[in-house]
Amino acid sequence: MLMTLGRRFLGAVPVLLALVAVVFTLQKIAPVDPVVALVGEKAPPEVYEAAREKLGLNDPLPVQLLGYLGKALQGDLGVSTVTRTPVADNILEFLPVTLELVFVAGILIAVIGSFLGLATAQGWRGSGVLRVVMISGASVPVFLACLLAMLIFYRWLDILPVTGQTSFYDAPTGPTHFLLIDSLLAGRPVLFWDALKHLILPALCIAITPAVAVGRVLRSSLEGTMRAEYIRTARSKGIGEKSILIQHALRNAVGPVFALLGLQLAGMIGNSIVVELIFARPGIGLFIAQAISKGDFNTIAGVTLVIGVLYVLANIIVDLMQAVADPRVTV
Q: Which end of the chain is more exposed for a tag (fewer CB within 10 A), N or C?
């Protein structure tokens, strides 16, 4: 396992270096002058040149690229031209909100996807209706899912909130910046429940499409696995269907599901940005939207790098989970 983990990390290095090179190139071709954004359009020429020299923009491009890479490895992603604070500090403030949302969405994907896959593969009562739901859920755009969720659970039923992280104005902001964790550390279970209720709708909107995809892949994988020779052998020994499903078939059927999750991660992160804007959650989506509207390319580049790193790390974890579930798989 350690050798597998080492190989995956070594394989991720070229991907991350390519990502840094792409982000650096986009910075150079973007129609935004970082010096003007920093010192202002009316700054004297000597101030402009001093800022340009300080930023290293007079160096050759290869030297600038190496410098950018070295700073990125040290966690220095530059200074936001909007907030005038380090981009890394801003990301550490906003990113936990997004990670919390994606984590809850991941739990919903696992629960809903497993239920859909097992119910349709085993022909449970109502499985025909669930198949229709799966087909419909796969075609619902995330923004439409958000609007429908708001209409049903807030406007009509009035059981779930739709904006912000919490209804409490004195919610803790540390030490982890994950409100669910911080509320428990502060000994405030009521705040924890309130924060969880604010997470349910946006997390559900992110989870719908991946959960349906997981359910469909799990159903197909289970149907193929249940026809295997070793399953027929288990039946001939008198083992019950539930025991066969849980102890023998399910573990061998989840490999394709983990492979699918690796492909779904990028979409989940992208959808989380849209969902945060719709539900007014103060996460990385709101942060990047403000940066784009203000032409803050340091922030845009920093967020892109961080999301890229998280995507690579998440795929490594998914590959390891796939290898654990099925030792025949080599990653």
A: N
